[in-house]
Design a protein that fits this description.
It is built from ten helices and nine strands. The longest helix is centred in the middle third of the chain and has 21 residues. It has a six-stranded antiparallel beta sheet with strand order 6-5-4-9-8-7, sandwiched between helices. It has two domains: 68 residues, Orthogonal Bundle (Arc Repressor Mutant, subunit A); 180 residues, Beta-Lactamase (2-Layer Sandwich), CATH 3.30.450. Strand 2 and strand 3 form a beta hairpin. The protein is globular and about 55 Å long. The N and C termini lie far apart (46 Å). By secondary structure, it is of the alpha+beta class.
């Protein structure tokens, strides 16, 4: 029996299950709906809801009697040193990038088998494509995740292949080839996995160890008039990613 089986905390499990179901739903839920989704009785989760409200992790809309996540978890996440350093360093650079390209951009960090959006800046124009702050996306379903993995420690890459199967069943040899090409280029540019007509350009944010701490991505939208060419946006993205990397103690592109 391993430690995960030996040491159990059922109440904690229930509380975390509630947080996860509210996060995955992306909408408020009644007490009964939460109980149904977790296949638990209403009485089982009542105390958990009370405690989570008391700690400020969830809130209750008194009029609709529906529970929803507060921003407290996001605020806690931003207290993590690397996330806080990332967002502080990236914010002004991302604002300038969005302005220069007239394209939105977002910053993503890896979280186990997914990436989480930790920064988002909309372009100044009328047509905006943005990704929700705090959104969690499968590692293989986003250019950000692929770029982060491509620029990770080789042992971490091997571990990812062993533990995170590709949802479309693409072979390991093909994936290794694609990641190696991305690492060699210093970016990835490909059609969005989610939105038709959008081409993602993603570049790694490198830490002091030379490995990816995050990824900066432009979901590029073509424009009929007044648009900045995608090639120019890619170069501006690379310059921006380098500027953020240097602030984190990472290498400049010329030093690679």
């Amino acid at each position: 029996m391993d430690n995960t089986e030996k040491y159990k905390a059922p109440a904690l499990d229930k509380g975390l299950d509630i947080i996860e179901i509210l996060a995955s739903e992306g909408a408020s839920l009644t007490q009964g709906e939460i109980a149904n989704r977790l296949e638990r009785s209403v009485s089982e989760i009542f105390r958990m809801l009370v405690v989570l409200r008391k700690r400020g992790l969830i809130a209750l809309d008194e009029q609709s009697d529906r529970y929803y996540l507060t921003t407290h978890l996001f605020e806690l996440a931003n207290r993590i040193p690397i996330v806080k350093r990332l967002t502080v360093a990236a914010a002004p650079v991302m604002r300038q990038l969005a302005k220069d390209c007239n394209q939105s951009c977002h910053l993503a960090a890896r979280s186990q088998d997914s990436v989480v959006i930790v920064g988002q800046v909309d372009n100044p124009g009328n047509n905006v494509l943005s990704v929700r702050m705090g959104a969690r996306i499968e590692l293989w379903r986003t250019s950000s995740g692929r770029v982060i993995l491509a620029n990770s420690d080789p042992a971490e890459i091997d571990k990812a292949f062993a533990t995170i199967p590709h949802p479309d069943g693409i072979g390991v040899d093909q994936l290794r080839k694609e990641l190696a090409e991305s690492a060699s280029l210093g970016y990835e540019q490909m059609e969005s996995f989610v939105v038709k007509g959008v081409e993602n350009i993603s570049a790694p944010i490198l830490g002091f160890d030379g490995f990816a701490a995050a990824a900066l991505t432009i979901p590029y939208i073509g424009r009929h008039h007044g648009g900045v060419p995608i090639e120019d946006c890619r170069e501006l993205l690379l310059v921006a990613a380098e500027a953020i990397s240097v602030q984190l103690g990472g290498p400049a592109r010329a030093a690679k």
